[in-house]
């Protein structure tokens, strides 16, 4: 029968789930969860199962393609990998020579475990400009945690928390980064109390002991209110605060500015609910907070993260069993070391776009995308001539989509590596076919902070597809400096594993490595901050010229900050609801997954729908001052009548035009990327809170070319 089962780890979304891949006659016939996986314990989401349809999709890119004719016309010719490498090498050398390495931008999205290789390549060719989602997704969590308490604190579900506060996160749907939904479900099954902070009534909110339905964008104020109660009622861990907190006096003074009355008015959450949540969290130990991207895509991004760390710290829940812990990494090279950041010349580092504006982001080699688009369109502060995008679709996933489209259409040379011809790839001069996780060997997740590295094993070869890692290693050998690359990808994997003493082949047989966990490491080592303590008053933020204490900033576009605009756009719009079927802009051409969610929908309260004459299932126009799109109305009592909740990252691969309907339902046509509206330290784009209006009058929408097919 020539059938075998290969143990590997999925990466169709955030990754890490253990899988058993059934292969017959060289083809994958079934994927199932691995019961022996220490990460997912046999569970697997629909996306993992549907990887078969991704790998063998008839529209998948199988060979390198070079553009023929004008950008966006959809005319391509097949070329060899050698021709593709020659073209990339020539362009990189040309632009470095004429404009400097900084004129070349590398980019990735919520990647496929490729970020360390991408940074290594960028640093070695000498460009400081790597375009990531890191300014508004996960990067702020890591950066803020490092300057506040030395490392990213992660919920220790194995330690049996008695209380979990889920803040702007829905792990049972999104299974993000360090977390899998099964952990939270198990904790609740064991009796853990659950507090959910979310503007929307999610399935988790339905299971919670307490749901705090706050006004979108007011998370810092709500946390300040909880801290007010905890400090006032002396529910904090006095010994920890006395020995391990820096800036307590100043922090308390700041918290006292946020009376419960003021906080309730800001957040829409009743005073008694705030008090109840504070008491429940502070007195039910151990407790942990699981937060995510929703609070990071905000002008309050950094302070959202800082204030939640403060809540965990003063209640004695840092690095204790069942609290928020600093997992010990396994014995491998870490992603920062592999990324070769120290090899980027200092004079090049100073040229990072926007680095003098968003100083926390700059310290972690992260930039705000707006500065790239500006450098392409205006050639200031210097011209960007080449963009190389890997596993990202910014025409769909970045704010102010119209500007993104114009910039990528204008740039001298655009290369894209992806599974399909996306709206972004259709603008490229060169398209490269990337491998799925079924088609690669890799030391997976060595950038995460959950204490594991996982073996991903190649089981099939489809067309001429190559992994991003293999592609960059081969290109690095051609562009140089060659001594920092390896003859084959296994050389790179062996280098990552060198501290463990294992080769990749030996590692693959083991399946994973895990660091030896220990708790309360700070007792012996202190916290890895300048003061050795948890810095509620941040010395690094002060050094960079920012407020060293957390504060609440009113969103730049809200009923409070823009009452003039509110008259025309009377609803608060939140974007980015996470469906089970998709991963950001990916997978809408996968039949099993598209069947789960055929069309985009926007959540609207029935009172709002009646006011706007909208019925269930209607196509509705969602408009901001910047643009508009169409989504189907889903009426729900689980959202405030003053709030509209839209889905993000929608495009329509089935539309024959090279644009693939990217203008039809793309919520990022409405979002803003003005640096003034971004988080002042991190540059996080304010995606989640803006003003909008909704209408069911499609006559106006159907008069435009972009929506004529709907």
Topology summary:
Blueprint: E1 3-9, E2 18-24, E3 27-33, H1 46-49, H2 51-55, E4 65-67, E5 76-78, H3 81-99, E6 104-108, H4 115-125, E7 130-131, H5 139-149, E8 154-155, E9 163-167, H6 171-174, H7 181-189, E10 193-197, H8 203-207, E11 210-212, H9 219-232, H10 238-244, E12 245-246, H11 248-255, H12 260-267, H13 271-283, E13 287-291, H14 301-314, E14 324-325, H15 335-338, H16 346-349, H17 359-363, H18 369-377, E15 386-390, H19 394-397, H20 401-410, E16 413-418, E17 430-433, E18 442-444, E19 452-456, H21 468-479, H22 489-497, H23 504-510, E20 512-514, H24 522-525, E21 534-535, H25 539-543, H26 563-566, E22 571-577, H27 591-596, E23 601-604, H28 606-611, E24 619-623, E25 628-635, E26 643-647, E27 690-695, H29 698-702
Parallel strand pairs: 6-7, 6-15, 9-10, 9-13, 10-11, 12-21, 15-16, 16-17, 22-26, 23-25
Antiparallel strand pairs: 1-2, 2-3, 4-5, 4-17, 8-14, 18-19, 19-20, 22-27, 23-26, 24-25, 24-27
């Amino acid at each position: 029968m020539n059938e075998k089962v290969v143990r590997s780890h999925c990466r169709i979304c955030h990754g890490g789930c253990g899988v058993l891949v059934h292969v017959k006659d060289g083809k994958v016939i079934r994927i199932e969860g691995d019961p022996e996986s220490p990460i997912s314990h046999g569970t697997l989401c629909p996306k993992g199962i549907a990887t078969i349809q991704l790998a063998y999709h008839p529209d998948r890119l199988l060979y390198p393609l070079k553009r023929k004719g004008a950008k966006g016309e959809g005319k391509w010719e097949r070329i060899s990998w050698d021709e593709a490498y020659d073209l990339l090498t020539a362009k990189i050398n040309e632009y470095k020579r004429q404009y400097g390495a900084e004129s070349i931008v590398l980019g990735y999205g919520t990647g496929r475990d490729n970020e360390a290789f991408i940074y290594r390549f960028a640093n070695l060719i000498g460009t400081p400009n790597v375009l990531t989602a890191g300014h508004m997704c996960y990067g702020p969590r890591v950066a803020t945690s490092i300057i506040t308490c030395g490392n990213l604190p992660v919920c220790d579900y194995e330690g049996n928390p008695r209380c979990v506060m889920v803040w702007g996160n829905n792990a049972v749907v999104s299974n993000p980064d360090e977390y899998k939904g099964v952990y939270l479900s198990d904790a609740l099954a064991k009796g853990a109390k659950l507090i959910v902070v979310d503007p929307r009534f999610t399935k988790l909110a339905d299971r919670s002991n307490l749901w705090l339905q706050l006004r979108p964008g007011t998370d810092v104020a709500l946390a300040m209110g909880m801290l007010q109660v905890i400090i006032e009622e002396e529910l904090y861990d006095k010994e920890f605060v006395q020995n391990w907190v820096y800036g307590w006096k100043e922090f308390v003074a700041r918290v006292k500015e946020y009376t419960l009355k003021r906080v309730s008015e800001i957040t829409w959450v009743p005073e008694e609910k705030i008090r109840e949540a504070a008491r429940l969290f502070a007195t039910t130990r151990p407790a942990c907070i699981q937060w995510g991207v929703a609070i990071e895509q905000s002008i309050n991004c950094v302070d959202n993260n800082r204030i939640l760390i403060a809540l965990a710290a003063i209640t004695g829940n840092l690095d204790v069993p069942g609290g928020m812990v600093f997992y010990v990494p396994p014995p491998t090279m870490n992603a920062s070391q592999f990324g070769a950041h120290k090899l980027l010349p200092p004079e090049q580092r100073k040229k990072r776009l926007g680095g003098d504006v968003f100083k926390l982001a700059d310290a972690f080699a992260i930039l705000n995308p707006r500065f790239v688009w500006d450098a392409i369109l205006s050639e200031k502060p210097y011209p960007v001539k080449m963009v190389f995008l890997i596993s990202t679709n910014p025409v769909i996933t970045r704010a102010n989509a119209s500007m993104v489209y114009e910039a990528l259409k204008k740039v001298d040379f655009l290369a894209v590596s992806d599974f399909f011809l996306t709206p972004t790839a259709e603008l490229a001069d060169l398209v490269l076919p990337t491998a799925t996780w079924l088609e690669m060997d890799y030391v997976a997740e060595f950038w995460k902070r959950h204490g594991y590295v996982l073996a991903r094993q190649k089981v099939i070869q489809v067309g001429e597809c190559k992994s991003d890692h293999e592609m960059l290693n081969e290109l690095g050998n051609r562009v140089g400096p060659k001594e920092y690359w390896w003859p084959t990808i296994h050389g790179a994997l062996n280098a990552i594993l060198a501290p463990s003493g294992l080769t990749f082949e030996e590692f693959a047989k083991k399946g994973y490595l895990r660091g030896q966990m220990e708790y309360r490491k700070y007792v012996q080592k202190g916290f890895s901050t300048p003061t050795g303590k948890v810095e509620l008053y941040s010395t690094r933020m002060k050094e960079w010229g920012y407020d060293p204490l957390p504060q609440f900033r009113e969103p730049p576009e809200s009923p409070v900050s823009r009452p003039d605009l509110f008259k025309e756009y009377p609803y608060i719009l939140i974007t980015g609801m996470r469906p089970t079927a998709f991963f950001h802009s990916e997978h809408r051409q996968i039949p099993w997954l598209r069947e789960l969610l055929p069309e985009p929908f926007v959540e609207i309260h029935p009172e709002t729908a009646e006011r706007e004459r909208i019925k269930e299932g209607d196509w509705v126009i969602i408009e901001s001052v910047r643009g508009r799109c169409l989504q189907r109305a889903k009426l729900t009592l689980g959202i405030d009548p003053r709030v509209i909740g839209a889905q993000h990252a929608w495009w329509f691969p089935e539309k024959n035009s090279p644009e693939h309907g990217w203008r039809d339902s793309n919520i990022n046509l409405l979002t803003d990327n003005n640096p003034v509206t971004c988080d002042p330290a991190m540059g996080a784009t304010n995606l989640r809170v803006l003003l909008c209006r909704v209408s069911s009058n499609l006559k106006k929408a159907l008069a435009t070319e972009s929506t004529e097919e709907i």
